[in-house]
Amino acid sequence: MKNNKSLMVICTSLLLLISTKPILPNQTSQTTFIPRPFSENLALQNVLSNYEFYHNNYEKKPYTFPQEHAIFSLENVIFYGESTNKANMARYFLLGNKTELSVKENNSGDIGSLWLNLNNGNDTFSGTFKIRPLRRTLGTTVSYFQDFSKILPHTWLNLSLPIVKISHKLAFSETITGPKGTTAGITTIFDALNNKNWCYGKFASKRSVSGLDDINAKIGFNFKVKKQNHFGAYGFLILPTGTKPTAEYIFEPLIGNGHHVGLGLGFTYGWQILDKSNVKLDLLVEANLQHLYPAKELRSFDLKNGQWSRYLQVARDGTPGTPYPGINFFTKELKVFPRNNFEFLGALHYKYKQINVELGYNLWFKNSEDVELENPWDYADEYNIGIYDIQNGTISASTATINNANPTQDATFTRIQSTDLDLESAAQKRKSSQTVYLAAGLNSFIFRVPSLTGIGFSYEVADSNTAMSQWTVFFKQVFSF
Fold first, then answer.
1. Secondary structure letter of residue 33 according to DSSP
2. Going edge to edge, which strands form the sheet with 331-337?
3. Which of 28, 144, 389, 455 holds its CA 20 to 30 A away from the CA of 114?
């Protein structure tokens, strides 16, 4: 009866957690997107192996408690995944919550072509373009688990070292109706969005990066480890061994969390619901809270003139007739405060003889970021800029927007002030996703070493376009000594 009540409390808590999870709004015209790293993915980390560590390793006759001997395990997981929310990701990077934008020379489009140096001399340039961002992830993770019960009773260490290759594809396509542009080197919309004079914010067809993802080091303490149940807590450190953002391209492929150190606390719990002959059924639960510390990142941002205003042209006071790409000035080092993220994992693990089947659910939630300029907005001559008067080139046009290439001319040159910057366009908003997975594994002996070999599939659904929806297939191998 007591066990039934415990199960009811856990299941009720899980249902409340799912039902009260906030529904997040979609975002548009954001400059920075950092997907969920491996260090924040309990589903891939724990599938099958969590049961292996806490139960299979101690299934001996007579039953041996961990404090009576030291064990260690080596685990390797190979995974491949692809994102699925292409249209929603297009809205994230484009403007007006649209999946396709029009570029016209007569100010009737979403973007005035003159801002992009696209014109054919007859005020007739007209075209549309769209993107369908796709992320592919291929990786392998080696994890080391050590029980230190002989030295420090009930303690353990777990280290994870993921190596990944990330590929991002924009799937850029365009349609031009009428003559192409006549500017040297800029005849199409794709040319314009890859202007060689732009240092940042460009649109690449495909980019990829490979390397070591963030290292996750956990130190835990088991308050209870029995054949029927276990309960433990742990602290963990995230070492930012991934890549740092460069802001050169939108939808930039990144490894890790953006180069932020993280600290966190978590707990793990398991309870054996059924144990009959060769059949066992266990409930496994884990949750953790992680805090990421501030760090400098190079990010682009809009002005308060509106979405995509970072692509307006600017001019310097004294030489208002010479335009420069605004994106080069509206990309700065920002101090980024990622704050916290929370993760919950619940799984049912079924075992028949040496066959293991696991069905799990993972909830991930991350706070909105806070950002601020690392250095004050510089008013020296180099940065003494205003929005270029694209029609006359004589003063400035401080009210210009990206869809209007015929703005009102200022009476006097108007500098861009720090209060004109929209730093929120560079901050990632709240993000949340839910993952379900199914995996199967087989216990055996390889070279007389106890092992677990498993395969599985997971599907992650993002609750807005601030996170990735994706599917993943994986292969896992665990050796226990």
1. -
2. 295-300, 331-337, 370-373
3. 28
The residue ranges of DSSP E strands in 226-330, in sequence order, are: 229-239, 262-276, 279-292, 295-300, 302-303, 313-316, 319-325
Phi, psi of 227, deg, nearest 5:
-65, -30
Question: 2: Cβ–Cβ under 8 A, 6 or more apart, which residues?
Answer: none
* CA 71-72-73 angle, 5° bins: 135
Token pair 């401080």 is at which residue?
398
Q: Give the pLDDT confidence of 18-57 residue by residue, as tens digits.
A: 544 556 789 999 999 999 998 899 999 999 988 887 776 5
The whole-angstrom distance between residue 427's C-alpha and the CA centroid of its chain comes to: 13
> How far is 236 from 264, CA to CA, in rounded Å?
5
Residue 467 contacts residue 403 (beta carbons within 8 Å): no
Backbone angles phi, psi at 383, to 5 degrees: -110, 15
pTM as predicted: 0.90
Q: Give percent of the chain with pLDDT exceeding 70.
A: 91
The answer on pLDDT for 332 being more than 70 is yes
SS3 86: helix
CA distances from 110 to 98, 122, 246 (A): 10, 19, 27
Q: Are 325 and 331 in contact (CB under 8 A)?
A: no
Give counts: helices (H), strands (E), the chain.
5, 25
- CA–CA dist 132, 99 (Å, integer): 8
Alpha-carbon gap, residue 30 to 33, rounded angstroms: 8
Tokens of residue 21, six digits: 């999870």
Widest CA span in the chain: 90
User: What would the mean pLDDT of 184-212 be, rounded to a whole number?
Assistant: 95
Q: Which residues pair with 370 in a beta bridge?
A: 337
Rounded to an integer, what is the distance from CA 180 to the centroid of its chain? 37
Of these ranges, 178-182, 214-218, 391-395, the one predicted with the greatest mean pLDDT is 214-218
Neighbours of 329 (CB within 10 A): 20
Cβ(268)–Cβ(286) under 8 Å? yes
> What are the φ and ψ backbone dihedral angles of 59, each rounded to 5 degrees?
-85, 80
The per-residue pLDDT for range 339-361, each reduced to its tens digit, is 999 999 999 999 999 999 999 99
Quote the tokens at residue 154. Answer: 């009930």
**Token couple for 26:** 């979609």
Alpha carbon distance 348, 360 (integer Å): 6
